[in-house]
Design a protein that fits this description.
Layout (H helix, E strand, L loop, with lengths): L8 H26 L10 H55 L8 H21 L11 E5 L8 H7 L1 E5 L13 E6 L15 H6 L1 H5 L6 E7 L9 E6 L6 H16 L4 H9 L2 E6 L5 E7 L5 E4 L2 H6 L3 E3 L2 E2 L4 E4 L15 E9 L6 E7 L6 H14 L1 H5 L2 E3 L9 E4 L5 E6 L24 E3 L10 E8 L4 E7 L5 H14 L1 H5 L2 E5 L6 E5 L5 E7 L20 E4 L9 E3 L4 E2 L3 E4 L7 E9 L5 E9 L6 H14 L8 E10 L2 E10 L4 E5 L12 E5 L9 E2 L3 E3 L1 E2 L4 E2 L5 H54 L3 H27 L3 H7 L2
Antiparallel strand pairs: 1-2, 3-7, 3-36, 4-5, 4-8, 6-7, 8-24, 9-10, 11-15, 11-23, 12-13, 12-16, 14-15, 16-23, 17-21, 18-19, 18-22, 20-21, 25-30, 25-35, 26-30, 26-32, 27-28, 27-31, 29-30, 31-34, 32-33
Helix pairs in contact: 1-16, 2-3, 2-15, 7-8
């Protein structure tokens, strides 16, 4: 054993152990006094991170439970409100049932007054609980509770949320099918028993009116709306036997609508689902008008004859309804019926518009020197009568007299167009345009001049109809008797004439190097009519000029009756009437974008492209748009419909289209069409200069809908309307039950979510305790141990510090 004064190793060791024991005692005291095993990150960094994560999740779940409880409370408030509305529906059904009885002898006005006040209270309470359309809670309510797991943050949020979708659970009268839109007869007219000369019995007794009926004793109304529009609109035939006044008239119409809705077609089903009902409105002056109402769909009702037109309040004089007939008349001709055609081939008569979904082509086969004008007209009459689409549209050929003009008639009063190709001698008076590459096809993008001889120096005049439109005159003068010169002159004319340039017309050498053919480079169909040539282009058979530049098409003798034959439901949202021009050029197209908001405010969008194959007429464009809307399979967009209506521009009644819907808001964006100018329009446009001069068509804009004033609601003012109200209320109770079921399901969802969150919260707290909390029994033992070690360490240090004193003993021995 050695002795050292400078370095007391034992003291140093004792100091170190004393420090360690002191730290141990300090940590133990912290754990005992705090109750925590991990007081600072140095105690257990990994454990502290885990414990903090648990604690954060506990905070989220604790607030999530409060969120769920708040949501549960709100659903309970809504549930109570729906229970009140259920009682209001009970009262409404009681009143409607009382009024629907044929033996009721009291005052239905009193019943109707209370009934309307009940409907008003339903709307007020629906708004109070936030479940009116567009209400505070009429949306998808997502409540974040926490506790969810997922691959990313979005998944965690989604799995930690509970959603209750109330967007389709609104309970106001509109949602319950008790209020909606209404079409009403002409304001100020009267078909009631107090009318001087226009009451229902007067209308029925009028021989002019009766003479317009397709079936004696029956009148026809046409309905169109979402799923039953355009060529698919529904004609409802009303049996007038037993109709004596306005009340029995409404009852007969409702019976007819019911029968039509059960006929089995998809369009009839759409009409049935629209739930259109007829009733009688009594205005503030005591005058009565026929009304049609629907709580679920915007619609249009149109008269099918003079009788129906009079019922709608459209009178020409006295009790006579406005005539619906519209006649299209050809140009003046002097061809006797015995006159034979000088060419062999096919004459194609195209009829479009007038409610037709697409163009209808009638082919007349003719033989040179054999087929007479009378035979051609007879064939046309027979084929038109046998064409289902034309008959459905009410289009017929008028009785024809020898050497008289050809006439076609629409018994619906709608505008339509008739064009002819292949009648080279113009015997039918509709122009002498020639067919193109395919003699039996109206739509040709190529025309062969069929040269039979050489070329000459001179002038050639001709007409070209672009896309079925009015003929455009053309003239060339050759300077050399060569095909090359003729081609150059033609192509120069096509390049410098706007209409020909837009149609992409070009003159080319045919494959045999002798013929000239005219083609469209962009797919535009056209018809060619050679007038004078003298072999300049080598056209062996020249055409015959018709009456002016419109010789290639028959023109309307009268226009669609203004203000009168149709009524559009109000109370819906819609745009102003848009004006339409046929899209004729193959290179032209217009994109129409419709954007609609659902009850929850989410936007639904559909784009429709109109071109020269699906928008050659207004009716064709309407069919294209409505078909796209219905085929979207989008419940919101399917509530929109494009209807044909009349607008006035430059004092002329013009057919156009209007978008209407029961949706509270939608937008229509109109794209531009390449060939548009300030004086003409192709596609859909809105004019900003109605009755003020030349039209200024506006495209490339977004037009927003506006809610129309007025509208309709369930009514029990008559037995017929009360019976309809009883049916509507039955459906309303079912709809309310569905909404209440969603509320109940939501309450259960919140309860389930709260139970899970409480369980997760308990288990997370337990897990955190295992990681963070101290074992006090063990720590108490450690504290005693630390105290003993510390005391022993102090004593040992004292001994170690006194060890160097032994060296003094050695020195004393000296």
């Amino acid at each position: 054993m050695s002795f050292s004064i400078n370095t007391n190793v034992a003291s140093l060791q004792a100091q170190n152990y004393l420090r360690v024991n002191s730290d141990f005692q300090s940590k133990t005291i912290n754990r005992v006094t705090s109750g925590l095993r991990i007081v600072s990150s140095g105690d257990d960094a990994a454990g502290l991170a885990i414990a903090n994560s648990y604690r954060s999740d506990e905070a989220v779940l604790a607030q999530g439970v409060r969120n769920a409880n708040d949501g549960l409370s709100q659903l309970q408030i809504i549930d109570g409100g729906i229970s009140n509305i259920s009682q209001l529906l009970d009262r409404a059904r009681t009143l409607a049932t009382q009024s629907a009885s044929g033996t009721f002898t009291g005052d239905r006005t009193v019943l109707s007054g209370e009934f309307q006040s009940v409907l008003g209270e339903i709307d007020r309470q629906a708004q109070a609980i936030g479940l009116n359309q567009g209400g505070t809670f009429a949306k998808n309510l997502a409540v974040f509770i926490g506790g969810g797991k997922g691959a990313d943050n979005a998944g965690i949020i989604n799995n930690g949320s509970v959603s209750v979708n109330l967007s389709s659970s609104t309970v106001d009268t509109k949602s319950l099918g008790l209020s909606g839109v209404q079409a009403i007869g002409v304001a100020g007219t009267d078909i009631g028993t107090g009318a001087v000369s226009t009451k229902v019995s007067d209308i029925l007794a009028n021989p002019t009116n009766a003479g317009s009926e397709a079936v004696n004793g029956n009148t026809v109304f046409y309905f169109q709306g979402p799923g039953f529009s355009g060529a698919n609109k529904l004609g409802v035939s009303v049996n007038l036997s037993g109709v004596t006044d306005a009340t029995t008239l409404a009852a007969a119409i409702n019976a007819a609508i019911g029968n039509s809705g059960n006929s089995g077609s998809q369009y009839a089903t759409a009409l049935k689902n629209a739930n259109v009902t007829a009733a009688i409105n009594t205005d503030t002056n005591g005058k009565q008008q026929l009304t049609f109402s629907s709580s679920v769909a915007a619609f249009q009702v149109e008269a099918g004859d003079r009788v129906a037109n009079a019922f709608l309040g459209n009178f020409s004089s006295g009790s006579t309804g406005v005539a619906l007939q519209n006649t299209v008349t050809g140009g003046a001709v002097s061809s006797a019926d015995a006159t034979t055609f000088s060419n062999t081939g096919t004459i194609v008569v195209r009829i479009q518009g007038g409610g037709l979904a697409g163009a209808q082509d009638i082919q007349l086969t003719i033989a040179s020197g054999v087929t007479t004008v009378a035979q051609a007209v007879t064939s046309l009459t027979t084929q038109v009568a046998g064409n289902a689409a034309l008959q459905s549209a009410g289009i017929t050929v008028a009785t024809h007299a020898s050497a008289s003009t050809l006439q076609l008639v629409s018994n619906r009063g709608e505008a339509f167009q008739v064009s002819v190709v292949g009648d080279k001698a113009n015997l039918l008076g509709a122009g002498s345009t020639q067919s193109g590459a395919t003699a039996t096809n109206f739509d040709n993008t190529e025309f062969d001049t069929a040269v039979s001889g050489g070329y000459a120096v001179g002038t050639s005049t001709f007409e070209i109809s672009i896309g079925g439109g009015a003929a455009v005159a053309g003239t060339i003068t050759t300077t050399a008797a060569t095909q090359a010169n003729a081609l150059a002159q033609l192509n120069n004319l096509f390049a410098t004439t706007a209409a020909f340039q837009s149609a992409g017309l070009q003159a080319l050498q045919n494959v045999d190097a002798t013929h000239i053919k005219i083609v469209s480079s962009n797919g535009t169909s056209f018809r060619f009519n050679g007038l004078t040539d003298v072999a300049v282009l080598g056209i062996s058979t020249t055409g015959v000029a018709g009456s002016g530049t419109t010789a290639s098409a028959l023109t309307a003798k009268s226009t669609f009756n203004a203000g009168g034959s149709s009524q559009t439901a109000v109370g819906a949202s819609g745009n102003d009437v848009f004006y339409f021009g046929a899209i004729r050029n193959g290179g032209d197209a217009q994109n129409i974008t419709v954007t609609a908001s659902d009850a929850a405010g989410a936007e639904h969008t559909l784009a429709v492209t109109l071109n020269n194959t699906n928008a050659r007429s207004l009716d064709e464009a309407l069919t294209t748009i409505n078909t796209k809307l219905q085929q979207s399979n989008d419940a919101t967009l399917q509530k929109l419909v494009a209807d044909k209506e009349q607008g006035t521009i430059n004092t002329t009644n013009t057919e156009g289209l209007r978008f209407v819907s029961t949706l509270s808001a939608f937008k229509v964006s109109l794209g531009t069409v390449a060939s548009n100018t300030t004086s003409t329009v192709a596609g859909i446009a809105e004019s900003t200069s109605v009755n003020t001069g030349a039209p200024n068509y506006v495209q490339g804009k977004v037009y927003s809908s506006a809610l129309s004033t007025g509208g309709g609601s369930a009514d029990i003012g008559s037995q017929a309307t009360a019976q309809a109200a009883v049916s509507a209320l039955s459906a309303s109770v079912s709809n309310l039950g569905k909404a209440q079921a969603v509320i109940g399901r939501g309450q259960n969802q919140f309860n389930y979510a709260i139970n899970l969150a409480q369980s997760q919260l308990t288990n997370l707290t337990t897990a955190e305790s295992r990681v963070r909390d101290a074992d006090l029994a063990a720590e108490a033992a450690n504290l005693t141990k630390a105290q003993i070690l510390l005391q022993a360490g102090v004593a040992a240090l004292a001994q170690a510090n006194s060890a160097p004193q032994a060296v003094l003993a050695l020195l004393k021995g000296q």
